Amino acid sequence: MSLDIASNRAARKWTPKEQGARILWALAQPFFRLSPRPLWGWRNALLRLFGAKLGANVRFDRLSHVEQPWHLEVGEGCGIGRGAFLYSFGKITLGRNVTVSQFAHLCAGSHDYRDPAMPLLKPPIVIGDQAWICADAFVGPNVTVAEGAIVAARAVAVKDVPAWSIVAGNPAKVIKERKLN
């Protein structure tokens, strides 16, 4: 078997409407990134303008990155840290009071490696209420991080993470339960 890279490159991955939205969002990026740190409301308004559904008191750092805001749903009280990358080709849903720490990567996009043309896939990611995606952690496509779970720093979550557990490593494995005082 050999790969058919030419077919992959020639494939239409976006509708004309999506492609137009991607171009407009790219043009809006300086208004997001260059906004002063305390202007959370301004960044939220920009994201909402491009179709993101955001709850109250959401804070996106100005240096966080959202690939396609129209595939983003964020519950109230969430914080998205500096350099966090929300690769939202597929839908990314964050519950309430979720923390996505600096340089974490939520990757809702991949390719079907079994097909020689390697078509783009856009599977969702769901992060439950009160979960914490720590610094430099990676959450892959089609993964659910359940309520209260922690994906430790630099962990690679490629399978679902159980509620109120802490996972670490590559691939991420449960290392203990998360207990609150």
Q: In terms of per-residue confidence, which ranges show pLDDT below 50 for 5 or more consecutive residues?
A: none
- Counted beta strands: 19
* Number of structural units classed as domains: 1
Percent helix: 10-25%
SS content category: alpha/beta
Largest sheet: number of strands, sense, barrel closure:
7 strands, mixed
CATH first level: Mainly Beta
- Major sheet: arrangement of strands: 2-5-8-13-16-18-19
Tell the overall outline: flat
CATH homology superfamily name: Hexapeptide repeat proteins
Instruction: State the CATH architecture.
Output: 3 Solenoid
Q: Helical stretch count?
A: 3
Strand content: 25-35%
As a whole number of angstroms, the C-alpha radius of gyration is 17 Å
Mean pLDDT: 96
Distance between the termini: 56 Å
Q: What is the H/E string?
A: HHHEEEEEEEEEEEEEEEEEEE
CATH topology: UDP N-Acetylglucosamine Acyltransferase, domain 1
Tell me what you see in this structure.
The strands form four sheets. Strands 2-5-8-13-16-18-19 form a seven-stranded mixed sheet. The protein has a five-stranded parallel sheet with strand order 1-4-7-12-15, with helices on one face. Strands 3-6-9-14-17 form a five-stranded parallel sheet, with no helix packed on it. The chain is an alpha/beta fold and 181 residues long. The termini are far apart. 19% of the residues lie in helices and 27% in strands. The radius of gyration is 17 Å and the shape is flat. The chain has three helices and 19 strands. It has helices spanning 5-10, 16-33, 40-49, and strands spanning 53-54, 59-60, 65-66, 72-74, 79-80, 85-87, 92-94, 99-100, 105-107, 110-111, 120-121, 125-127, 132-133, 138-139, 144-145, 150-151, 156-157, 165-168, 173-177. The protein has one domain: 3 Solenoid (UDP N-Acetylglucosamine Acyltransferase, domain 1). A hairpin with a 4-residue loop joins strand 18 and strand 19 (173-177).
